[in-house]
Design a protein that fits this description.
This protein is of the alpha/beta class and about 400 residues long. It has helices at about 15-25, 35-55, 70-85, 100-110, 130-135, 160-170, 240-255, 255-275, 305-310, 330-335, 340-345, 360-375, 380-385; strands at about 1-5, 65, 90-95, 115-120, 140-145, 170-175, 195-200, 210-215, 280, 295-300, 315, 345-350. The protein is globular, with a radius of gyration of 22 Å. The two termini are about 30 Å apart. It binds pyridoxal-5'-phosphate. Pyridoxal-5'-phosphate binds near residues 73 and 209.
């Protein structure tokens, strides 16, 4: 099997899995208990907090552990909105190609009286910092722009956006789920106020993540109850999962430069090979993209059929995000960068990992080329295109 769907989830690293298994047995005490066995779990928890904080340039007390990226996104945005409401500021700026954990939270806030401006991400999938600046109003309480897009892999000019927000005194949140553990992220240098991350996107366990909130920012609880996580996230902590997340992040950070260099070379070969297919186009900026992300549209085919036939050949890929698969609507991300419905339907996302080999890359190029040609063989849209009854777009 060739696993090329790392943006959906990753396999736990051996270090993370071993950490989790041993702690399930050894540190099962409640970190809120005062006796030694509880305090051992507390030490594990606080060590993990320190490790996670140091990787992103934060302080341990600025880290809240959550159940994953979605929860962190919800808590960050709802907290900033609550602070805004108090100050009479109810305008929020974001983009049309955010993850649904962000977009659906913004929809909810709109129903509660907030106004949301969604910035254009242009055909290259990049937000322009000067457009963020121009969109900021006197009543803007939050700018939320993802660090790297989960479908097309584009890396946003986060540092420039952070500088604009800091200068204008507006809170800045970034969904960094696809970035943390893959590319360097530093909340000080990037001037980020709130950041979301998820362990299962960097070889940690599922159901664990964290929210960074710069000190002084008052968070709103999503879950009420005990005083865990400085009273901001009730519930007994998932100590083994949190420690495994920290182990995975340390490992990802230590190997980042080497892994990124290899993945970038493999990605570039994939882009080169797939560009040889007629009437195909890369989605998202060629250069400002994650080391492991390749996303193409092929005219005249259905992405779903392509995925099923690739699965027959042992290749795991995706047509966009795992969250929307099963729905027949084309990806909101591809529509946001201006792909028309017909073209957006024929999309393929390959998100590769550090263990991908050059042989596997050639196998993917061969398989995709053959399957696309095969599917076009009995596609009515393709027949119309080649007969000149319809104009090619790509
Ligand atoms: C996966 C993902 C999420 C959701 O994270 P979970 O831990 O699965 O809740 C949010 N944002 C982005 C960009 C993602 O890729």
């Amino acid at each position: 099997m060739i696993y090329a769907d790392q943006a959906a989830t990753t396999k736990m690293s051996d270090a993370a899995a071993e950490c989790m298994c041993s702690l399930i047995r050894e540190a099962w005490g409640n970190p809120s208990s005062l006796y030694a066995h509880g305090q051992r779990a507390k030490e594990v928890l606080e060590q993990a907090r320190q490790d996670v904080a140091s990787v992103i340039g934060a302080e341990p007390k600025e880290i809240i552990f959550t159940s994953g990226g979605s929860e962190a996104d919800n808590q960050a945005i709802l907290s900033a909105a609550a602070l805004g409401r108090k100050a009479g500021k109810t305008h929020i700026i974001s983009t049309a190609f955010e993850h649904h954990a962000v977009l659906h939270t913004l929809k909810k806030l709109e129903k509660e009286g907030f106004t949301v401006t969604l910035l254009d991400v242009h055909e290259n999938g990049l937000v322009r910092p000067e457009e963020v600046e121009a969109a900021i109003r006197d009543d803007t309480c939050l700018v939320t722009v993802m660090y790297a897009n989960n479908e097309i892999g584009t890396i946003q000019p986060i540092r420039e956006i952070g500088a604009v927000c800091r200068e204008k005194n507006v809170l800045f949140h970034t969904d960094a789920v696809q970035a943390v553990g893959h590319i360097p992220v530093n909340v000080q240098e990037d001037q980020i106020d709130l950041l979301s991350a998820s362990a299962h996107k960097f070889h940690g366990p599922k159901g664990v993540g964290f929210l960074y909130a710069r000190k002084g920012i008052r968070l709103t609880n999503l879950i009420e109850g005990g005083a865990q996580e400085r009273g901001k996230r009730a519930g007994t902590e998932n100590v083994p999962g949190i420690a495994a997340m920290a182990a995975a992040l340390r490992e990802a950070n230590a190997g980042m430069a080497r892994n990124a260099a290899h993945m970038t070379a493999m990605r570039d070969r994939l882009i080169e090979g797939l560009s040889g297919i007629p009437h195909a186009a890369l989605n998202g900026d060629r250069d400002h993209r994650l080391p492991g992300n390749v996303n193409f549209c092929f005219e005249g085919i259905e992405g779903e059929s392509l995925l099923l036939l690739l699965d027959d050949r042992g290749i795991c890929a995706s047509s966009g995000s795992a969250c929307t698969s099963g729905s027949l609507d084309p990806s909101h991300v591809l529509l946001a960068i201006g792909r028309v419905h017909d073209v957006a339907h024929g999309s393929l996302r390959l998100s590769i990992g550090e263990d991908i080999t050059a042989d596997q890359v050639e196998e993917i190029i061969r398989a995709v080329s053959e399957v696309v040609q095969y599917l076009r063989g009995f596609s009515p849209i393709w027949r119309d295109l080649t007969a000149g009854k319809k104009a090619f777009i790509l």
